[in-house]
Input
Amino acid sequence: MTEHILLNTGAFIHTAIKEDLAGHTSDLRTRFPPEPGGFLHIGNAKAVYINFELAKIYGGTCKLRMDDTNPVKEEAAYVNAIQDEIRWLGYEWDGEVRLASNYFDKFYECAVSLIKQGVAFVCDLSAEEVRATFGSVDKAGTESPFRGRTVEENLDLFARMKAGEFKDGEKTLRAKIDMASSNLNMRDPIIYRIAHKTHSNTGDAWCIYPMYDFAHPLEDAIEGITHSLCNVEFEDHRPIYEWYVNNLDCFPVKPRQIEFASLAVTNTVMGKRHIRKLVAEGKIDGWDDPRLVTISGMRRRGYPAAAIREFLGQTGVAKAQSTVDFAMLEHFVREHLKNEARLVMAVLDPVKVIIENFPEGETEMLDIPYNIDDPAAGSRKVPFTREIFIERSDFMEEPEKKFFRLAPDKEVRLKGAYLILCTGVEKDGSGNITAIRCTYDPNTKSGMGETRKVKGILHWVSAEYACPVTARLYETLVLDDPNAEGGVAFNPNSLTIMDGALAEPSLAGAKENERFQFMRQGYFCLDAKATEAGGKMAFNRTVGLKSSYKG
Output
């Protein structure tokens, strides 16, 4: 990765970093601090990319910290999942994984320090009452009646909060700043709240927990982070970030917060609330559903990590919010897969073809290259027999104009095999075609130098040796519908399952996440989760062959 990609639209970050590091011996130190309350998605991956790549560019380091200050949301399983996802993306953090909860003692000391300075107080107002005093952008807030408590009284009450003497919501610790500030985040924000909940790391050692706006800048300062690079939604929180750091003059490094626009992608869902709703309704099968742009979902679908990184780099870094076309992500996935995926044959909606003049009971093993333009890619043996399957859509009894595939009295080539000529069809009592009858020309084997040309080239599989598989085809998860309830219009056709698909026998040995190009169908990978559920090997279509991206 080179600097010019990040400079694409993110010069403001480079300018700030270079100014801050000029004349200093310290290196750039960034961090990625997810809350372990869910799985990472493409938007989180953007923050991963920016923090790790900038550290690399400037010869610095990037730390990984779990912001586990909320005992209600966090789960230990997410901590492990996030680490695995970051490593899969291609990044390794500096040192051990940090947990914000390991700093709880230090947070408490800092809160006590603010009380002793007279800039923090214990408030008895409920959450609803506090909100009622906040006022609005155009109207100043009202000070809490408990704002005038003495330092001694506040220290006593805060210690008793820590000791568990009060119920949830009965008291809070608040900063004493300015209830008339134009920034509502500065209107005496809550520092600590009471929550008698068991924490995934500290157990029941604490019943008071710091608010994110208080803990986050302290975590950065404790770890010596030089630059806190975060989503633009935190821009209004920067004054409180700086207020806490400046009022606690006990850290050698005062981190600087710089915001960038979040990444939005068309026809996707990233909000945890919406994803949980889709899971609860049975519309998707979990956070790793391949229709999601979660890291686990994209990984399961077969997206290469390198393609995701390139996509993130090309989307640029900006202050203004913008939305990226989903087709752009697919474009980079397709560009990577076309160079690494092996070409094989699979028939998703099969119809039988009987080659009448091929010897019954005989099998010819054809040597078919994986990539005709790249001999180094090698080849595989594909059995050719009297009965084969082709795609049902590759035959038309009454062909339309410019239909170049198989039709009565029409000749096509079978990929890597022979020319065949349709001589008739077999139908059931309802008039449905059950088999297509053909003859083949043994003098037209691929590679023999046959001069007779045809326009149609079809993929096929042997009826005797075909490997039964399930093909899972994906479209965008949500539709463009601004009037949809909650802003999300679920696409009922986002998943099509082709349970009767057949593949050439070489796919019987496919490994998890191994990628293939199914001839004329798209790029696919083995889905281990769906395979375990159904027994039959299941393949996800990662992306189609044609691109709608105009970049």
About this structure: The CA atoms of residues 20 and 166 lie 45 Å apart. DSSP finds 14 helices and 29 strands in the chain. The first strand starts at residue 29 and ends at 32.
